[in-house]
Design brief:
The complex is a heterodimer. Chain A is mainly beta. Helices cover about 0% and strands about 40% of the residues of chain A. Chain A is built from no helices and 30 strands. By secondary structure, chain B is α+β, with helices and mostly antiparallel strands. Chain B has a single domain, classed as Beta-grasp domain (Ubiquitin-like (UB roll), Roll), CATH 3.10.20. In chain B, strand 3 and strand 4 form a beta hairpin. The model of chain B has no long low-confidence stretch (mean pLDDT about 95). The chains are: A mainly beta, B alpha+beta. At the A-B interface, strand 6 of A face helix 1 of B.
Chain lengths: ~375, ~100
């Protein structure tokens, strides 16, 4: 009986991996949308059989797909992402002004309560929303028209809005992150936004503690403590205890300050996971060893988790949306690599096993706990 | 009917074979043909022309009768051979590989 479903986006299609609660034997279904980049696939918390997938390709632009049967069949839905009003500009790599132009969807975040409502984080950085199951998308333009938006500049991966966090206790609160502009919070359901970057420090930007310009890689939150946010930044792992109003570094004894993923244990809000990457020059794990680091203290004290993971000749990366946790009593942790492996731990990271070894490069991993 | 040949990724998306046939009311121009194609296969909207600007995607080309029509005016008539269905209109993706 299927009780857990993994949704894996890769550079050449999407895969749906299913198992039972033991999470030892997996069925692999795919590729869906073969040959296309699938940046993200995510299910609705309100209707687990409702899935949304962001499918794109340089030749053909953006397609968005919806499934109403847990990923067995898919239907293309609306793919018109039109910025609202007059198009403003952001900074280009050469510091010239560059008009905002839609390139692709990086992240889809379904509403916690309504299966027809989904938020989309896109490149060039903006937040869109559908309330009709994807037929149409409207921009929540208050973010892109934030007073600082004309100064935002893309990171190497583009000016992408890649993180969207919703708060079940406060429907008006949305947290987003943009590379390489920073982090932003709305307390009025996306109408207006403020930067939440106080305490961030980035050594190699002109003003290390500037309000904008930080390359935030990912943010995670535990639903039971929405005021606590964890961030993997281009440099350093950070923590906020007041919804991003202030941040402090919790990198502690991590072997590097660079990485992409960060996630929180399903039942232990102070237990967090990262995968340190060698550096921004070398986008692979250190010393040929794939190690997940876990902190049970909300940061600063970290332990390497290696059982079942390759500890020699491994040079993969783990991208920002490629880690997730399930909500079984024994919390499952999953991540995918640019080498095409998807690893699973059914014991909160103590031991790992590769579910699949040879998928295309993994861009995202999401999990649904179905019972 | 006008014959349109699609690149592989779009055939998969539209769940069709190599070639589709569409009818065009009025003068057979590239704009009218692409409008008819998107009307018959709505999932192709935005994949050949940008959904907002309606500009041809830069890594696609339009060929017919051994001519590159990509930069021809969208409202210019297509060759009679295409309008009569004797030659296909080709939507071609830029070649990728080594």
């Amino acid at each position: 009986m299927t009780t857990v479903r993994l949704l894996v986006g890769t550079h050449k299609g999407a895969f749906v991996l299913t198992s039972d609660e033991r999470r030892q034997q997996w069925k692999v279904d795919g590729p869906h949308f073969a040959g296309w980049d699938v940046y993200h696939v995510k299910g609705s918390p309100a209707d687990p059989d409702r899935l949304y997938a962001a499918q794109s390709r340089g030749w053909f632009g953006q397609v968005v797909q919806r499934s109403d049967d847990g990923g067995s069949t898919w239907e293309p839905i609306g793919n018109q992402f039109q910025y609202e009003g007059a198009t403003n500009t952001h900074k280009w790599y050469d510091n010239t002004d560059h008009p905002y132009e839609f390139l692709r969807v990086w992240h889809l975040e379904p509403s916690l309560t309504d299966p027809d409502t989904v938020y989309a984080g896109v490149e060039d950085a903006a937040l869109f929303r559908t309330t009709d199951a994807g037929k149409s998308w409207e921009e929540l333009s208050g973010l892109r028209t934030h007073p600082s938006a004309s100064t935002w500049a893309p990171g190497a991966g583009g000016l992408c809005l890649h993180t969207i966090i919703l708060d079940k206790d406060n429907p008006n609160r949305i947290v987003t992150a943009i590379s390489s502009a920073g982090a932003f919070r709305s307390d009025d359901a996306g109408k207006t936004w403020r930067t939440i970057t106080k305490g961030l420090r980035s050594q190699y930007i002109p003003d290390p503690d500037a309000e904008v310009g930080h390359c935030v890689h990912h943010i995670a939150m535990h639903p039971s403590r929405p005021n606590v946010l964890y961030m993997q930044k281009h440099w350093d792992v950070m923590r906020s205890d007041n919804s991003g109003d202030n941040w402090h570094e919790v990198s502690g004894n991590l072997p590097t300050d660079f990485g992409f993923v960060i996630d929180v244990h399903a039942h232990e809000p102070e237990t967090i996971y990262v995968v340190p990457i060698t550096s921004d020059s070398d986008h692979f794990v250190m010393d040929g060893k794939l190690r997940v680091y876990r902190s049970r203290t909300g940061g600063n004290q970290w332990e390497a988790l290696t059982k079942g993971l390759p500890q020699k000749d491994c040079y993969v990366n783990v991208l920002r949306d490629a880690m997730t946790v399930d909500s079984f009593d024994s919390c499952g942790v999953y991540f995918g690599t640019t080498g095409g492996q998807v690893y699973a731990s059914a014991d909160a990271g103590d031991s790992w096993k590769a579910i699949v070894q040879d998928l295309p490069a993994v861009l995202s991993v999401e999990v649904q706990t179905l019972s | 009917m006008i014959r349109v040949e699609l690149p592989a990724n779009l055939r998969t998306l539209a769940n069709v074979g190599r070639e589709v046939a569409v009818s065009v009311d009025g003068p057979v121009t590239q704009r009218a043909l692409l409008d008819a194609l998107e009307a018959a296969y709505p999932m192709l909207r935005g994949t050949i022309r940008d959904a907002v600007t309606q500009k041809r995607r830069p890594m696609l080309r339009f060929f017919a009768c051994e001519e590159d029509l990509s930069d021809q005016p969208l409202d210019a008539p297509l060759p009679e051979e295409v309008a009569a269905g004797r030659e296909p209109y080709l939507v071609v993706g830029a070649i990728a590989g080594g």
